[in-house]
Design goal:
Distance between the termini: 15 Å
Number of domains: 1
Structural class: mainly alpha
Largest sheet: none
Oligomer: single chain
Shape: elongated
Number of strands: 0
Order of helices and strands: HH
Radius of gyration: 16 Å
Strand content: under 5%
Helix content: over 70%
Length: 67
């Protein structure tokens, strides 16, 4: 994996984790369910981006195939 895609993947995964924790906090508190639902939808979107970055990194690095 190139260093740029590695850093981008780690940052995007950390953002997805933070959104997940915020959604759990909102679900546990007395706030509305729509906020928690919107955060979960945002988490899914971010996870798609993370998966795309991982696939891009594998494609750019040759996918781990031997030379």
């Amino acid at each position: 994996m190139t260093s740029t895609t590695l850093v981008a993947t780690i940052i995007a995964a950390a953002i997805a984790f933070m959104v997940l924790m915020k959604a759990f906090y909102h679900r546990g508190s007395s706030r509305t369910d729509s906020v928690s639902n919107n955060l979960m939808q945002l988490r899914i979107f971010i996870q798609v981006i993370v998966l795309g970055l991982i696939l891009l990194a594998l494609w750019l690095s040759g996918g781990g195939r031997p030379d």
